[in-house]
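Hi Q.,

Before the meeting this afternoon, I wanted you to have the nickel (II) ion prediction in hand. No need to reply - just skim if you have a minute. The sequence and ligand are here:
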Amino acid sequence: MFIDTHCHLDDQKLINTDEVVKEYQLSGVDLVINMGCNISSSEKGKELADKYQSIYYAVGFHPSDANHFNDEALDKLKLLVTNKKCVAIGEIGLDYYWKPYDEVKQKQCFVEQIELAKESKLPICIHSRDATADMLSVLKQNKDKLSYGGVMHCFSGSVETAKQLLDLGIYISFAGPVTFKNANGLLDVAKFVPQDRCLTETDSPYLAPHPLRGTVNAPKNLPIITAFLANLKGLELTDFANQVMKNAKTLFYKLN
Ligand code: NI
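Predicted structure with the ligand bound:
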């Protein structure tokens, strides 16, 4: 019934994959998409997808790893995208939170991977932290390369930013923070985004939802986020979960 569109099952905290998979299946999570942050996590995603039917994967370089992105790395990504279970390029984007950062290198890494997505006929999973204006301008400048769409992962911006992303054809994904006591403006965004443009994710092992905040997050907690959003939007949980699954299968068409 549920899908976790963004998690990091290669993380040391979630190393017992058999257990992680068993637990999320028991909580009703049918599909998960593992993100790539560099070559090793992208390759690990493929290994996990080879082993577990319910795991799909994305490949890419996280902005914090942009300094390791080069032609050799791009060639390796190109080999990984052809697999039938590679559903997206991600997570890619801009992160000006962790200092020092190289803005020029991050933008180059972001744009080259948007081009890879177009070539590979895949959607992108976008990461943006403290970089909203630049992230939006890169997307707008490369609008012609976004024919396979994308998703803004763990959205934490304003209604205005969400609106601009929706106009660019980007889906909005909500994670644990929407359930936090200090979510404030994010609640308005969650109410604003049409249900046919919403996605859900855990970003495991990070960002465990309320009341588990501060613990190691895992895909088994995904239903907490979906239920919170359904309630906020005044929808039946089953209806909303089915809609989110449909949205995910529309964007990540290789899930079908
Ligand atoms: Ni992530």
